[in-house]
Amino acid sequence: MKTYVFVAVVWCLVMLAPAVARAEQTMACPQGTYDMLDWFTLDSDIRWGYHMGGNTNPMYTLVEPGKFFWTKTGAGFPWDIQLYDSSYIYLWITEYSWTDKYTFKKFSGSGVPLAPRCAYAGAPGSAIRVADTNYEIHTSCNSFSVHSLGKAVNEVWGPYYMSFGGSLPPNMKTLVVSYRYNCDANYQNCGDKEAYYLAQRYGVVQWEHYRLISGKYALVQRSTFNNVSQGAVQPDFPCN
After folding, report:
1. What is the reported pLDDT for 173?
2. How many Cα atoms occupy the beta-carbon half-sphere of 111 within 13 Å?
3. For residue 90, what are the domain limits?
4. Cα separation of 237 and 240, whole Å?
5. What is the pLDDT of residue 17?
6. CA-based nearest residue to 38, from 231, 169, 160, 204
7. Position 3 in a domain
8. How far is CA 146 from CA 104, 108, 205, 223, in A?
9. Which residues of the chain have pLDDT under 70?
10. Residue 23: its pLDDT value, please?
11. Who's near 1: CB < 8 A, 6+ residues apart?
12. Are 43 and 24 in contact (CB under 8 A)?
């Protein structure tokens, strides 16, 4: 009986925590800017035993010095692995095959800067133009071919007040990081756009992928992560 009471109390604390409006600040950012590591990741007091449930896949978060994992199944893979430092959040590794943990796509070098570590929001706020989007498609840990996503433009928008349903509170303060790639030489006519919807305590609560068709962006896929669900997982990435 005591075990059940303890679990119930922990769950209530997790669910009621948004009312306290607490923030997990990971570094001191200048006034008027947002620490994007805090916004991209699930807070530490939740992620030790919980994850975000979604309409397409779950999202388990692990933060380590210099990198963080978004693991997409309870098996420990596939995953997105992003890097961070005091300057930027970087896109780095994502899966190639959902069923083969020895295959993946990896941006060259230290990855593509997705957002400043301390970013301004706005319409848009902070913006980054990326000239080099070379990446490797790995068919094994050491066998790969090199490809490119053309020019890229990354921007931080908001904040907006949005509701995502599930167990999340309504009208949450939300930042949107837009990632446009396959752009032309003038950083225009970008063939693809991804959008990360970020809530400070919960990290990524929605992700969208669009394609440019006849001059307009058409939605290809939307994944929503709107339920705080019990369970954690250790990422399984054998190609370190």
Report:
1. 98
2. 20
3. 27-230
4. 7
5. 44
6. 204
7. no
8. 12, 9, 31, 28
9. 1-25
10. 55
11. none
12. yes
Amino acid of residue 8: A
- The dihedral through the CA atoms of 42, 57, 210, 141 has a sign that is positive
Tokens for 100, please give them. Answer: 């083969």
Give domain status of residue 77, yes or no: yes
- Residues 154, 114 contacting (CB under 8 angstroms): yes
pTM recorded for the entire structure: 0.90
Measured distance CA(35)–CA(40) in Å, rounded? 9
**Amino acid making up residue 234:** Q
> What DSSP string describes 72-86?
-STTS-SEEEEEE-S
pLDDT at 134: 98
Domain count, the chain: 1
DSSP state letters, 171-198: SEEEEEEEEEEEE-TTS-S-SEEEEEEE
Token couple for 162: 């949005």
CA atoms of 204 and 197, how far apart (whole Å): 6
Q: Are 164 and 206 in contact (CB under 8 A)?
A: yes
For tokens 């053309």, the residue is: 150
pLDDT digits (tens, 9 = 90+) for 165-192: 999 999 999 999 999 999 999 999 999 9
Cα distance between residue 46 and residue 23, in whole Å: 12
Q: Is residue 19 part of a domain?
A: no
DSSP 91-157: EEEEEEETTEEEEEEEESTT-EEEEESEE--STT-SEEEES---EEEESSSS-EEEE---EEEEEEE
What torsion do the CA atoms of 54, 213, 155, 92 make, to the nearest 10 degrees?
Answer: 60
User: What is the distance between the alpha carbons of residues 131 and 226, in angstroms, rounded to a whole number?
Assistant: 34
Asked if the structure places residue 12 within a domain, the reply is: no
